[in-house]
Amino acid sequence: EVMGHRTIFIDGFCPKHLWAGYHSESKAKEYKHACKRACQRAVDRLRAGGLALEAVTAALIELEDSPFTNAGTGSNLNLSGEIECDASIMDGKSLNYGAVGALSGIKNPVLVARRLLSETQKGKLSAGRIPPCFLVGKGAEQWAISHGIPACPSEKMTTKFSLSGYKRNKRKMELAEQVEMKRKRQFCEENNSACLDTVGAVVVDREGNVAAAVSSGGLAMKHPGRVGQAAHYGCGCWAENARDVSLYSTAVSTSGSGEHLIRTMLARECSTAMQAENAHQALLEAMQNKFISSPFLAGEDCVLGGVIVLRCCTCGEAQRSEDIQALLVEFLWSHTTESMCVGYMSAQDSKARTHISRLPPGAVAGQSLAIEGGVCRLGTVSD
């Protein structure tokens, strides 16, 4: 049983590999370090009195700045050799949401999503116009700059690793077109190597508020203008405070093949499932019935994705005390990819812990799933 004041959990997939969702030992080490730094940034914000929304933003900025993730700096290049990013954020307390899609020229897409969320809370614009919560493309870039978020040339966000990956994938595509060997399974296993490396975070603060965020550079060699699940409502992330003592607060972040996650609205589906008594069983059934075997993905033989899920409620014994607030927190993750990198940390911990979750031996990626997690009790002294 782990005690602490507040908790943050970080997830994501390694940026680029020959096999979708597979973490080599060398790249896994770098990604673990990125997860640990993101955990530390968020916990620092919580320790300073920040709320869940501020902490989850801090975590995502750290992950976007890492050249080893497919988000922000180091993102996959699209078919035209350009960077276009997707990101979204959701506040469980207000239920407000902000998102950007196919965004170029901004170093930290999550900052734009966060600012969009904040602006919606200020009320209507002139002439009674409703403020936007989701912007894409050039309009999103212009809006960001007009609201004080600095522009960043795309070449400064491109790394040697992402550029070499683009050149390698381009050669693969040209060869595949010449020999006409674009079979679906081969695409899933060979050309989809960088589609699953979305980064995300879920947080609960000392007040019991939850928040979630997600950011991604999208598919390698995607068509310009394509928007993945990281920007779509209910698909990339979801956060919702409990509105009743009999309910759980939930926060979810997803990663994987964007089109699969969009068509199943997996983030919201997993959040809804978390109201069941047994969280582990509920997530297992959601991943199997709402994702792998979803009627919306009928005909897909390689359904790739993963989720991190946090749910919390006030502990029964804490309700009898006016001085102590305690939260029972359950943190679970599940994936159909070969592996998934997860990190987690509470404000009482001296350092973050990371874990590479892998499918069981003999399991087939895209058709089988792994599920892990645990429970902790977080006690905080009331202010």
UniProtKB/TrEMBL annotation:
SUPFAM superfamilies recorded: N-terminal nucleophile aminohydrolases (Ntn hydrolases)
Any Pfam family: Asparaginase_2
Domain of life: Eukaryota
Cellular component GO terms held in the UniProt record: cytosol
A biological-process GO annotation: protein maturation
Active site (record annotation): T198
Site (Cleavage): D197, T198
Keywords: Hydrolase, Protease, Zymogen
Leader sequence residues: none
Entry annotated with the keyword Protease: yes
PANTHER family from the UniProt entry: L-ASPARAGINASE (PTHR10188), THREONINE ASPARTASE 1 (PTHR10188:SF8)
Protein name: Threonine aspartase 1
Gene: LOC107600565
